[in-house]
Amino acid sequence: MEPERILDGVFLVGSADISDSRDCMVYLLDVGELILIDTGAGPGLPAILSNIRWLGFDPTNLSTIILTHCHIDHIGGAHELKTRYGTRIIMHELDAAVVESGDTKATAAHWYGLPFPPLPVDHKLSGSKERLTFGQQEVVCLHTPGHTPGSISIYMDRAGKRILFGQDIHGPFFPEFGSNIFHWQKSMKDLLALKADILCEGHFGVYQPNKRVTEYIERYLDEYGE
To answer: 177-226 pLDDT, tens per residue?
Structure first.
């Protein structure tokens, strides 16, 4: 598989199929600045950077990484990007604590047999919603706890479509992650209310139109007893 364009200015640049088997799906936004949503586990970063170049972009222009939650398969490449390019890191304050302390259990780094030294977070989101602006593009970060206490989902309206980045909305849910199924159920209802045209999920692909997005989220609500 190769990197792909999902929508104007939105690209898939990393996944278990195109960068490393341990990677989540990594998305690149070209919105006046280059923004990366998650980074993969780390070992696949050279492939992710190669994919960014293949699409015609220069990774040295990556201004910001938005981390959707604290697990290693989503955050492991952030150290190197911050070191090499000075890339700013954004995530929710409730997951930032374990990232900044290098907690290998809460980040699930021990599951993957990967190191995770402490990582400073430049901007900590708080509350239920924060609107970020990059160039002319507004990007909305929603606090969607459940999988982890500080999980976020991201959406933006672009090219006549509402695109939602809902990483790991499928779970899993474990006490050591601080998971809360009741918080997750409310989060999923909040995501359904967005009526997104496109869902860029964390491991299982891209879903569109809205009917498929709704079916995907509702399937997990049914599975977990809603």
So the answer is: 899 999 999 999 999 999 999 999 999 999 999 999 999 999 999 998 65
Mean pLDDT of 25-32: 97
Q: Residue 90 is part of which domain span?
A: 4-223
In angstroms, rounded to a whole number, what is the distance separating the alpha carbons of residues 168 and 56? 28
CATH at 168: 3.60.15.10
H helix intervals, the chain: 45-54, 72-75, 78-85, 93-101, 109-112, 181-193, 210-223
Total domains present in the chain: 1
For the residues of 109-159, what is the DSSP string, one character each? HHHHT--------SEEE-SSEEEEEETTEEEEEEE--SSSTT-EEEEEEET
Supply φ then ψ for residue 47, to 5 degrees.
-70, -40
Euclidean distance between CA atoms 136 and 143, whole angstroms: 23
What order do you get walking across the sheet with 129-134 strand by strand? 129-134, 137-143, 152-158, 161-166, 198-201, 206-207
Report the DSSP beta bridge partners of residue 124.
Answer: 91
Residue 147: both structure tokens together: 């999988």
